[in-house]
Amino acid sequence: MAIISYDRQQRRQYIAQKISELKISKFDLFDYQEKITVAQVRELIAIASRRPISSPFQLHLLDAENLTFEAQQALLKILEEPPSYVLIYISTPNLEILLPTIISRLKLINLETIPKISNEIRKEYATFWKDILSQNPWQRLLMTDDFAKDRLTTLEWLDRQLLYLQNIMETDLMRDTSELNLNLHQVAYSLRQLLLTKKYLENNVATKLALDQMFLNLPVVNETKNAEKSFATKRHI
Using the 8-state DSSP alphabet, how is residue 215 labeled? Predict the structure, then answer.
């Protein structure tokens, strides 16, 4: 489970409430507060092989900001197939600091309310995303000219796209659907690309260069293939 909020205290309060509700004793609670390395993940996996001592569950608390890249990779298997008596809570200010492969294996608990965008604006942004995701690399590079404005304007545009994808993640993907034909992994990856591009611009990387890289790195969704797949499926029903 990922507990998401920019307010660290809010996350701690939620976790404390869950510990109380689940009746987790101190003997079955493992709180990893320092930098979490592969060695510590291996220790977690070893502990998880043993049943709880005096609680219904064994609870492991991880802070995403302390997880190294390698530690996140080492966590994948146990997140995919945890023992029935093991709970792993990952506390994080946002999803962007977690690997998409980690996110796709977690139940998401967002303690903050993401601002909603109007249906009209949502349709406008959806049009852009459907266009860019269906384009080949050359077409994508041609599109950057339309968006590579001055640095401030581009940063504001990136913020709006971040908000749109966060809305997609919170609404559509919680119902296992997406108006962009993207899965959770792809949306999380796209969010990371937007955030990386913001970081590049804030560090004075050329606007067009930063957008070129982002557009090329976004997932590819071929709507024609999706339509053909859907038609073929209907034929076999």
Answer: H
pLDDT single digits (tens) 54-104: 999 999 999 998 999 999 999 999 999 999 999 999 999 887 788 888 988
State how far the Cα of 167 lies from the Cα of 201, in Å rounded to an integer.
24
Q: Can you say whether the dihedral through the CA atoms of 106, 89, 40, 28 is positive or negative? A: negative
Number of domains the chain contains: 2
Q: Specify whether 104 is located in the same domain as 137.
A: no
Asked if residue 234 belongs to a domain, the reply is no
- pLDDT at 173 (0 to 100): 53
Instruction: Indicate if the alpha-carbon torsion angle 36, 111, 105, 20 is positive or negative.
Output: positive
Which residues on adjacent β-strands are paired with residue 32? Answer: 62
What six digits make up the tokens of 204? 């004075």
Q: What is the CA radius of gyration of the chain?
A: 20
Instruction: Note down the domain range covering 71.
Output: 2-110
Residues 43 and 10 in one domain: yes
Q: Got the DSSP string for 87-140?
A: EEEEEES-GGGS-HHHHTTS-EEE-SPPPP--HHHHHHHHHHHHHHHHS-HHHH
Could you tell me the pLDDT band of residue 171, with boundaries at 50, 70 and 90?
low
Return the structure tokens found at 37: 């390395």
Q: Is 44 exposed, middle or buried (0-12, 13-18, 19+ CB in 10 A)?
A: buried
CB distance 155 to 198 below 8 Å: yes
- CB under 8 Å to 177, separation ≥6 — which residues? none
Q: Are 63 and 33 in contact (CB under 8 A)?
A: yes
pLDDT in tens, 222-235: 644 443 343 333 33
